[in-house]
Amino acid sequence: MRGVIMHEPGDVRVEERPDPTIEAPTDAVIRIVAACVCGSDLWPYRGADAPDQQLMGHEYVGIVEEVGDEVRTVAPGDFVVGSFVISDNTCPICTAGYQSRCVNGIFVDGGIGTQAEFARIPHADGTLVATPGQPDDDLIPSLLAASDVLGTGWFAADAAEVGPGKSVAVIGDGAVGLMGVLAAKQMGAETIIAMTRHVDRQNLAREFGATHIVEERGDEGVAKIRELTDGLGVHSAIEAVGSQESMMQAIRSTRPGGHVGYVGVSHDVELPGGELFFGLVHLHGGPAPVRRFLPDLIELIWNREIDPGKVFDQTMSLDDAAAAYSAMDSREAVKVLLRPRSLHLSVQER
Ligand SMILES: [Zn+2]
User: Does residue 344 lie within any of the structural domains?
Assistant: First the structure.
């Protein structure tokens, strides 16, 4: 089969890889219908991590080809959405709702890599969720979004305790930040402030439910957010970047007693104790337990109550993965959907 391998930073190739097979009775093999490039894939692409022949991709929807003897909840022919961490969904961590740190957890990136034609999914029952039937083509981008960016934005909003009548600041205008805006809207937030300087992303944020845009950053950004919240700061902040600047922006934008949900993959973030102490904010975040939210998110998408698929602004053939990485690296694209050449999907064009 064809699949993406990152040889070293900036060097993305689509190459022949061995066809996956059932190795354990809890495995499924799925045919990937759509995958995509994640903002987090840009960290190794830009050299912040050290990729070495890394199998790329962790967002996926597909059709089950084959299952092991112990798989009960999905069957060949089912259309499935999976999360970016393999989970058994039965251990104490999973049952508490933190499937992304399952005791049997495996990150799909690196070990599996779903920017490919097929993938072996261990712990299929605990990882995959079948849709109620075969989806219409136009639902596929939204279902794919549920696999990571929507699930991650949703977790960030949940961790930030977004709720009816509350004010929310979203730091980060990548796909996850935009999905955080959508989640905040769906959870009933009254004021949703998207922090972005890019006009196209401002427009998308408004489409997803942002009520205010703040272009300023740092102290000026904090001052703007205070202006919009009676001088207090927001009830909830969603941090969707992972840098020192964005994390401090989130903490400083939040009122005492408020909540920060942080989901940007942390890179060299160091929190100053004094500010944490007097800030009096709740911090909760990490790799999103997307599996917790998947059944509900699939239902919302299936019933066409939300349309997160709009976050994909380009679609490319899997064979053009290198161009997809480049378009996202240069921020020409918010998020690129990749499809194996053999499949023809009508992805909505913006
Ligand atoms: Zn578990």
Answer: no
